[in-house]
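Incident log, structure service

09:12 report received: a user says their structure output differs between two submissions of the same chain.
09:20 pulled the input from the user's history:
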Amino acid sequence: MVSGFETHTHTHTQTTTPLHLDELSLYTAPQQKSRYVEPEAGQLEQSVATLRNVVEPYTTWCQGTYNKIKPKVQSFVQCGSDTYDYLKNPPKDFYPRAGVIGFTGVLGVLLARGSRIKKLIYPAALMTVSTSLYYPEQAAAIAKSSGDSVYDRAVQSYAALEKMLNPQRKTENGTDPEPKP
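09:34 re-ran on a clean worker, output below:
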């Protein structure tokens, strides 16, 4: 094997001019004079392009709708997961309390015979009362915050009602509601 190497070296040394790397065929690629020509689109490609152009506004709308709905769905799933975790390890006496609160709701439905308004108000009121008995601190906080907003709404409603009724009363009495200059 060494002798073959020497023979090759010996052959190379007989050449009078040294070879450059670009002269060796192993390191150079022959020059090509070809150009890439885009093939014409076939019937299938044209159909797909037309379909894409037609469907593009709908896909854009679907992506926008998906991006709007995705956070809401994720929060809903997170709420469900939190509820599952809570119910998996509930606090002491949770299920008896939930049973009593649910029973008062059913009792409210049974007591509310007649109008639809009674069927809405009775169960909600009875469940609220039984819930406030079991959770008084939270009920007080909710009552305070909602009581303030209910009072504000009542004052606004009273003012609007008074404004609607007062011009009618003045015209009934014979006085003009607005003095003319």
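09:41 both user submissions now match this output. Likely a transient worker issue. Closing.
09:42 reviewer note: The chain has five helices and no strands. Confidence is low (pLDDT under 50) at residues 1-10.
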